[in-house]
Amino acid sequence: MTPPLAPARLDGRRVLLTQSEVFMGPVLREVLARQGAEVIADPRALDTPDAAAAVVAEAGPIDALVAHLAVPAPTTPVDAVDEAEWRAVFAHMVDPLPRLLRAVLPAWRARGGGCFLVMGSASALRGIKRTSSYAAARGAQLAWVQAAGAELGASGVQVNAIAQNFVDNPTYFPASLQALPAFQARLAREVPLGRLVTGEEDAAFAAYLLSDAAACFVGQVFPLSGGWAVR
Fold first, then answer.
1. Helices marked H in 115-198
2. pTM tops 0.70
């Protein structure tokens, strides 16, 4: 068995993790805690106007926030995406970001720093058929990260994102999908790494970005997709 990876330490840091029971939530919670963080794991979706502020208030003082937002990706043809689908995807994955930042920013500015990490998607970096609403929302996340990071970097508040795809997780790559020969052929054809990135590898990188070792990064989007998307 491969030993656990050893990302940078997070001793003494309180980290709020949203939507902690889906997507990358469980492995993020495990790896961040292993690296010394006190993880405040909140399972709720943040698709209502007051939800983000409530989650932050209930968490108490935090040093970092992992904006981990996910919905099952629709597979609707581009000309069939209706208002309800478009609005729902953006309500779950885009609208919470400024609300979360507004909730944490006063305290972080007062103390001179904090880390805001968005777990995003490489679907915003490379076209995939029948994903227009999902890719648009993920793209909005990344554009917001770059703008917010550029604005806040000098204050000590870091805003960055991991843009992932082909990472092992039960939301987008369940075991039933991975077992299909067609999926294995797609991996071999499209992903230079030749396999899924493990959840542990992804979470280890997230831990690094939340650590002092990554204090120089602001407004940056890091593709993590086994080479499927590299920009």
1. 132-152, 175-178, 181-190
2. yes
